[in-house]
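ARCHIVE CARD
Drawer: 12
Card no.: 0347
Subject: one protein chain, sequence and derived structure
Cross-reference: see card 0346
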Amino acid sequence: MKILTLIITLFFVNNAFAAPIPGAGSKNKPTLGVYQSPQGFQIASAGTDWIQTKPPKNTRYIATMFRSPNVKNKMRATLTVRVDKLAKAMPIDQYVKRWTKEYPKFGFDVKGSKKFTMNGEKGVVVDLINPAKKRQLRQVIFMKDNRAVLMTCRDHISTFKSSLAECNKMIKTFAWKELNSTKTSKKN
């Protein structure tokens, strides 16, 4: 009986130090939130305390979003992940040029854009500012085949720099993954 009591006690003590939620550390703080998109990419909130949330119901383009736990200047910084499925593949420059023509309609001034390579993937970063609403944005765009992924970091102008550091941690985890339909068609 003493052995059975010891085993049960050890079981409960051992589980008391286990993570309460899969993927969470023992301090009740998520250590890794990975979004696996059915459109063939993934992004993670690793190294941040940002929380993945459901996208707004009024848009079908936002795949997921991450929010800062802090509210500053009556705003909560966000990183939205948008997916555009295009009728046909196009060069990333052409895609970005199309969007940069649209930004002024929404009150945004384009501060600049730049091509870059991250983890072997070519992308474009576009910096925007809306002086009337005191918002600043950075969009990071990747394209593959006929899919474009736009990650938009958004915050108040005065706190954008610190939010951007957190957004960049997540953006750096972006990676294309093979789609199941692609795997199937390659096997046939």
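Annotation on reverse: Residues 1-28 form one domain. The CA atoms of residues 8 and 14 lie 10 Å apart.
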